[in-house]
Amino acid sequence: MPQISRDDVAHLARLARLALTDAELDGFAGQLDAILTHVSTIAAVDVTGVEATDNPLKAVNVTRPDEMVTSLTQQQALAAAPRAEDGRFAVPQILGESQ
Q1: Residue 35 three-state SS
Q2: In the Enzyme Commission scheme, what number(s) does this protein have (predicted)?
Q3: Cα(71)–Cα(73) distance, integer angstroms
């Protein structure tokens, strides 16, 4: 017995505002039933005593601790810039945008 009917698929299609042909409804009903059958098979597996895992690798935080450090001054940051205007980096105009 199918786990999802053609009428169920038609109802879902209406809710999603999808216009499906009769052939598409039949095809999707078969595909969705096959998916649900596989999920049921997996759900029926006895996992008693099996520890749940989401990732076999242990997650390690590789970020550095936050520390207050001095940063560049505006003049130091702009010192190596090819061009600066009014205390800011000056870059070429792109995409025909006007300033």
Answers
A1: helix
A2: 6.3.5.-
A3: 6
Q: Chain-centre distance of CA 98, in angstroms?
A: 35
DSSP state of 47: -
Q: Are 10 and 25 in contact (CB under 8 A)?
A: yes
Mind listing the pLDDT tens digit for each residue in 28-86? 999 999 999 999 999 999 999 988 888 777 777 888 888 999 999 999 999 989 999 99
The CA-atom distances, in angstroms, between 28 and each of 4, 10, 18, 31, 89 are 10, 10, 12, 5, 56
Of 11, 10, 4, 14, the residue nearest 23 (C-alpha): 10
Query: 5: number of CA atoms within 13 Å, CB side?
Result: 4
DSSP letters, 48-98, are TTPPP-S-SSPP---PPPP-------HHHHHHT-S-EETTEE-----TT--
Q: Which amino acid is at 11?
A: H
Q: Between 22-43 and 6-15, two packed helices, what is the crossing angle to 10 degrees?
A: 100
